[in-house]
Amino acid sequence: MTDVNTQTITINPVTRIEGHAKITIHLDDAGNVADTRFHVVEFRGFEKFCEGRYFAEMPQITARICGICPVSHLLASAKACDAVLGVEIPRPAKLLRELMHMGQLTQSHALSFFHLSAPDLLLGYDSNPALRNVVGLIQQHPDIARKGIRLRKLGQEVIKLTAGRKIHADFPVPGGVNKALTNTERDEMRAGLTEAMQHARFALDLLRRYQQDHQPEVEDFAAFDSNFMGLVQADGALEHYDGRLRFCDNEGRVLEDQIDPANYLAVIGEAAEPWSYLKFPFIKRLGYPDGMYRVGPLARLNVADRIASPQADRELQEWRSQGRSPRRSSFYYHWARLIEIVYALERIEQLLDDPDICSTDILADGKPTNQQGIGVIEAPRGTLIHHYWVDANGRVEKVNLIVATGHNNLAMNRAVQAVARKYVKARQLQEGMLNRVEAAIRCYDPCLSCSTHAIGQMPIVVEVVGADGIVQQTLTRG
Amino acid sequence: MSDKPKIKVATAWLGGCSGCHMSILDIDERIIDLAKLVEFTASPITDLKEIPEVDVGIIEGAVCNDENEHVLRTMRSRCKVLIALGDCALTGNIPALRNSFKLEEVVTRGFVEIESTQIAGVPDTTVVPRLLKRVRPIQEFVKVDAHIPGCPPDADTIWYALTELLAGRMPQWNETNLKYD
Fold it and tell me: Minimal Cα distance from B65: which residue of A?
């Protein structure tokens, strides 16, 4: 498996390919880890090539930023378009958009936990990399794999029944949605919820056992101080579709609260670095890079006061009662993600019980009225911002997009650094070390296709750079 | 082992959204059956990034940078049948919208002009891959043996194509098994 020569260690020999992201580890004179960098290495340029399009095309174009969470872009884009029209969409349309969103939260979190991270947790960080994937999981734990596949499927079915299609649905439009929900579709969706909740509970039990068996590694895994950001409801409850921004610091103190997301430019700045195609957002008044903050499931649970559904709220209370809050360890992203699946499933049930859910009042009329539109939602991986400038006829003049994984860019770099310093023995690199560094990134479930409005993958190349700047070793995931 | 040797499959995504790979996962429990017939080697959903010699290579996405081109040529040289999965591989699709602009304009907008960008700077292409001046479909670079159109193709369409290929036949498209969706 391992081919060693004087300069390079290569695991499963590769020709340096498919590395859409990579990690470099810089050493000091004594050979200890001095610095690390997580590079994102692709770029597509949506912010330029959308210029000149008619604004109503934006949901369909920007959905193609990401096939893993296209619903996020559809919704943030549609909300930005609503703002261009200057309309309040009908309540049933809002319910249906949120329903679609909860289906996505379920499928995306299930994918992250079962398909991508469970192989590390159940097969082991040091297990054979050739089998450390969902197919290996199918072979070794077929029952667990099947539950994960089913849970993701049930989430995807909610999207399909609501919006007509699982990926890149043509459904949210400026002013509302273009399809009402039928009674039959509602009942079919409801029929799947019991099974989905069983699988979500199963996953929570699985993770609890892992956490009990692996303390203090879990508590310490890529743990570091940071601020946190997420949308909350007016009363501070967890929110994904609407709401306002709240920032908390590392001690849980509220830094900013109930910020209108349309004012994001007053609060958030971005820095470009020459070594990555992904920019680095920061809290403006704290400066760069001190203004680092985290978003996503961990941040949302750290900033929210409560969850407006009973089972998930009980889970949140347990999260709060066991150990320090806010949580610092990146590992707790997994736990937060599973609690959010419980919330999503309960929220789907609440939405299906709403007397307006099958209403056909789903579209507000309007013409382009405002010259800017800003749409913000909580995507599965964190806050997603779409900002369009249009002319009087609705022609797009400028676009700004800040996506969830972008917000986490500084944090992911810190996570890599924390794990590298703890686990990397620079003079004797091993595959399991590399996988732990990757696992730190995997906690954030980064969607690199979103984040560079490009496409990317898990880091596969680790370069060890000496104090003299010369690459000493290259370890490539084969 | 009396089992028939498994058919080796490798997949890669280039410049695209990964929606076609998600549509592969949308075959749901059928992936368990598929795992009995095929060996997934290099793929974004496995830890194996090195493309070995395989029977079937599947490419999602267009060629946007020099690294995409390298992956594509490597795949072609190591697979017997190369499949273009989805519209980006086939036509360039959405990523090719940037061809209406000069590359410099696209990069400047992204890293210098954007309203939220406080600290500007253009990435150094000795560290990150070099973007091509134009985004191009994969058949401009290599010979493609089969196409599965769609943005993304439906999971049932992908399933039909894969099962035909596993049976040693080329997929034959008609109005019932292909919607060009």
Answer: A42
ipTM associated with this complex:
0.93
How far apart (Å, rounded) are the C-alpha atoms in residues B122 and B112?
7
- The per-residue pLDDT of chain A, averaged, comes to 87
Distance CA A378, CA A239 (A): 7
End-to-end CA distance of chain B, in Å? 42
Please name which of A450, A397, A385 lies closest in space to residue A50, comparing C-alpha atoms: A397
pLDDT at res. A253: 95
Mean pLDDT by 10 residues, chain B (181 residues): 76 90 94 88 72 94 93 95 96 96 94 92 82 96 95 95 89 83 72
Q: Which residues on chain B are in Cβ contact (under 8 Å) with A12?
A: 48, 50
DSSP tag of A121: I
CATH number of B7-98+133-166: 3.40.50.700
Higher pLDDT, A430 or A198: A198
The whole-angstrom distance between B181's CA and the closest CA on chain A is 10
- Residue A289: asked if its preceding bond is cis (omega within 30°), the reply is yes
CATH code for the structural domain at A1-478: 1.10.645.10
What are the structure tokens assigned to A358, written together?
């099958």
**Which of A24, A11, A133, A127 has the alpha carbon at shortest distance from A437?**
A24
Domain boundaries, chain A: 1-478
Decide: pTM greater than 0.95: no
Considering only CA atoms, give the Rg of chain B. Answer: 18
Q: A11, A39, A43: best mutation site toward chain B, by most B Cβ within 10 Å?
A: A43
Question: Rounded distance, CA B175 to CA B180, Å?
Answer: 9
Residue A254, Cα to own-chain centre: how many angstroms?
Answer: 22
